[in-house]
Every structure is written in structure tokens, then in C-alpha cells.
Amino acid sequence: MFDRFDIFFVQQLVNGFSLGLVYALVAIGFTLIFGVLNVVNFAHGEVYMLGAYAGLLALLFLAPPWAALLLIALAAGIVAGVTLERVAFKPFRRFRDEASLKSKAMRESTLLSSLAVSIIVRESMEKTFGADMQPIPRAYANALQEPILFGELAVASGQLAILAAAVVMFIALQAILYRTRVGLSIRAVAANPLGAQYVGVNVDRTVIATFAIGSGMGAVAGILIGLYQGTIFPAMGFAPGVKAFVAMVMGGLNSIPGAVICAVVLGVSEAVATEFFSQGWADLVAYLFLVATLVFFPTGLLGAGRDRV
Amino acid sequence: MPLAVAAFVFVLLPLGLSLAGSGYLFRLAVVTLIFAILALSMQLITGVAGLLSLGHAAIYGVGAYTAAILATRLGLDAALTIPLSGLVSGLVGIALALPTMRLVSIYFAVATLGLGEMIYVTLLNWVSFTKGPLGIGAIPPLRPLGIDLSGPLATYLFVAVITAFAAVVVHRCAHSYYGNALRAVREDDQCADAMGLNVVRLKIEVFAIACFLAGLAGALWAHTTGYVNPADFRFAESILILAMVVVGGLGSVPGAIIGAALLLLLPEALRAVGEVRILMVGAVMFLCILFLPKGLFGEVSALDLARRQFGAAWQPERGLGWR
């Protein structure tokens, strides 16, 4: 039925799909924070990296079971996210009126401060642990690389774990957003921070909750992907961070389902591009998508539309 | 004041450096001047016109690679490669600006980040043209029109002259009616549009001027270093240039130069502590945004200084302002 080329191509699509899920895992937290604060969190990639390191240290010293490992990464991510919010975002929300909440100056100063914090965190990690990739204990790395065969297709167990994590996170996030009071206040602040404040929502606490949820998810993504790909190093957050950003822009900025779909599209297109070009040129795909989306579909492919001023 | 600065840059500093007789100090001074050009050009787009560009290092890289390729493949003279690099970078800037100019604030920043990374990926992978990750070596030193400027003092003076040229260009763009129009675009582009300014054209013009200057800086880098590599023109360098502008003060022309000098010389002074350059950049940038949001030499003080020193517009007997 399939000749060899076809099965190889389908295999590439499967790999691209799992790559897309990797981007989606990062994009979920990114989009959540952007949706609420309307500012880009350049340090999200660093939270992802910190989650991976926290998990790795736990592995080396405690060798916990899988569930505990993910919980440790989640906790590290929540701590990192809340600290990040306190350090890089809170000081710039000192004015409460509508004009300054929406002002360009506030958006740009938080953009720059999160960028500065991300540089500091990444460089300190480099000074502490070295810039090289960390060796990963054999048992854990192998557990994620075990091939599972579906007919002629081989899927690594890590790819299934990432799929499961993406599905669980997506459902958990939707449940939090649409079934809990915290979710209600997050949606209220995202829609209108001042209005939310008028009806008694504690904006400050809501923002912290958003950072905690988004960063926790980013950190779990970090440890899973780091272990699966075997790449845990201080600059590991940059590439997925940029790709997640592209997915977010393509998905219409504040739509989490849109970001997830576009992340998968992006991953599959990159995998297909490696069929035709070398790996180096395939990196162009994401940036081409980004620029093309910004230029031709300024409201995103799946967005509800938001003006870009 | 301008005379004092000129005397310091052209007489006192080279005199002191010659007395110290150290090639390392001369090299440091040249690199600082090159980054001062970059910071000045970034100041024009980011500080004065309010377009946050995260891909400036890539434009600088285009300039450096243009000079490197023209000088090594075609054996062109430095008197030709430097202006040509500026022109090529300016044209690339216009080509990048045309589709992205209708984006505002963060969307423009991200688009420039994407375009910058595209340029980097191209420099890295187009091996037949750019030699890829190996970089281009053996770029001839500065010998414009057969005059040998490859000695440390002559190179320094040549780079200083071009930096002065860049400073004058940026000064004339920023402290004039043209600069006021750019500031109006920065504060509120819809309002500026309604007042009859051609916003898109202004943005493209200023972007082209800044890219031209960045291209000059790139050519100087290629000729003074003798070697270019894609890794020198990545996102991290864009952030370094941005940090210089932010630390110096957004919208302030002297601030850009102060920021460039501070962020290059401070890490060098701290070299004994260890290789902490990028960490310092991050820390200085963060503390600056937090405690000195206007920068070390804020826009208001800079405009005040420009008024006092060059204030034609405020001396009625000389007519009104610069056109």
C-alpha cells in the first residue's frame, strides 16, 4: 500500500506534529499572559528553561517518580512566574488609570524589563551550570525514547507523553478559565482591567494567578521537552519561545485554541520543509510565517480581531 | 561644548592612547566608536521615531558582509566599500520597512525580530556566498584611495571622523522640525497623520537613514576587524544596541553615545571579575528601566542642551529654526 517514501513522509508528518505540540505547550502559557496583560513576556522562555533545570536537579538528587517530577517542575515554574511578575511587571503598574494601563510607555517598559530579566536569568544560569547541554540520566532519557510501533510507523514514547501533556494542559486551562472563579476574574481582567477593578476583581491577585498558571505550564513543558530532546541548556528557551510567539501571532494573539492549532501547523510545516531543504534553511519557515501573517493577516488567521494600536 | 567634545575625541583621546601605546586600548576605542554609530542610528528609529527595532544587528551585519564581500571578491577600495555598504544596508532597510511600516509598537518589534533572524539564517546558510559559519576572513584593512590608514592611530581617527559624520546626521535629523515631526509620530501616529504628516513616508525615510548609518558601522567593523562571522550579528547584539539606547535615554542623542561608551567600557573595566559582559548589560538595563526610566541623559535635558548649543530656532535674529 505504502511504498518506502510514503511511509517516510508520514513519519515526518508525525514528527512535525509532535514538534508542533512542543511549540503549543510553550504557546499556551505565553498566550495566557499576553491575553491578560497585553504585554509580551520575553522571559517566558527562561521560565521554561528554569523548569527544565529544576526537574533535572530533582532527577539527579531525588530520582522521584514521574508524577512527582512534573509537580516539582510545576512548583518551580509557579515560583519563577510569580517572582518574575513581582520583579519585572509589578513595578511598572504603579499607575492605575486607564490611560497608563493601556499606554505605550507601560507596554514598552515591561517589554524591556522582561527582556532584561531574561538576560540576567540566562546568564546567571550559564555562570552556574555552564553553557553546555546537561547530561541526562540514562534511565529517564531512554524511557522517553522507547519506540512504539503502529504498523510501520514508529512513535517515540516521549512524543506520546508530549501529546498527553498538551491535551491535559489544554483541557485543564479551559476548565480553569471557564469553570472557576479565578478563571472568571482572569477573563474579566483580559477583557477590561479597569472595568474588572470597578466590579471588585482584585486585579493584582488575578495577574499573579495568571503568571502562576502560565509559568507553571511553561515549566512543565520545559522538563518534558528537555528530557525528550535531551537538550537542557541555558539558551534552550529562545527557539521555542520565538516559535511560540509566531504561533500566538498567527492564532490571533489572545486565542489559546488558535495558538495551539497554529503551533501544530508550524511544526508540521517545519518538518515538511526539512524534506526539501537543509535543516538550517528550514528555520526560515517560522520567520516567513511570522512576517507573512503580520503583513497579510494583521488580526491573525483565527483571531476574533483586536486592533493593533 | 561641541568644540570641547571634538577636541576630546580628536586630540586628547588619541594623544593619551598614543602615550599609553597600547593596541588593545586603540581597538577598544574603535569598537566603542563603531557601537556609538550603531547606538546613534538606533536612537533615531527607536528613541526619536518610536519604532522599537529588534533586528538592528542584522542590518549592521548586512553592511559588514557587503564590505567584506566587495573587498575580498572584487578587491574594491575602502573608499568605495564603506559608502556602498551604507547604501546596500539602506536599501535593505527600505525593503524591510515597506511591508512592516503599518505595524505599530510591539508588532513592529516582533516583525523586525523575525526579519533580523531571517537575515542571520541567510548569512549562516548561504555558504557559497557568505562562507556560512566560517565567516569571511582576510578583509583588507583601511586603505581608502591608496592612503594607508591601517595603523592604530590613523584607523582610530578615520573611524572617529565617520562617527562624527553619523552624529551630525542624527543631530540634524533629531533636533529640527523634521525631528519634531518624528516625535509627533512617536507620541501618536494617528494624530500626526490627522495633522497632515505623511507618517508612513517619515517612518520609511528615518528607517532608511538609520540603516544607512548601521551599514557604515558594519563596513568599519569588517575593515578594522578583518573578519566577519554571522554570530556577531545575532539577536543578542540587537539587544546590546537597544540597551545602549535605553540606558543612555530614549530620544536623547548624547545619551546614545554615553550608553554605548558605558555598556562597552564598563564590562571591559570589570574584566578582572570574569566574563560578565552580557550579564552586566542585562543588569544595567534593568536597573536603568526601574530607577532611571528617562535614562542617564534624558531626552528633555538633551533637547535643552541642543537648544543652548545650536539653538537657531530660539535666536530670533537668525530666523526660525532648521528646515
Automatic annotation (TrEMBL), chain A:
Predominant location of this chain? Answer: membrane
UniProt superkingdom: Bacteria
Q: According to Swiss-Prot or TrEMBL, what is its membrane topology? A: Multi-pass membrane protein
Pfam families attached here? BPD_transp_2
Q: What is one cellular component GO term in this UniProt entry? A: plasma membrane
For this UniProt record, the keywords arranged alphabetically read as follows: Amino-acid transport, Cell inner membrane, Cell membrane, Membrane, Transmembrane, Transmembrane helix, Transport
Q: Which family does it belong to?
A: Belongs to the binding-protein-dependent transport system permease family. LivHM subfamily.
Protein's name in the database: Branched-chain amino acid ABC transporter permease
Where does this protein come from, organism-wise? Elioraea tepida
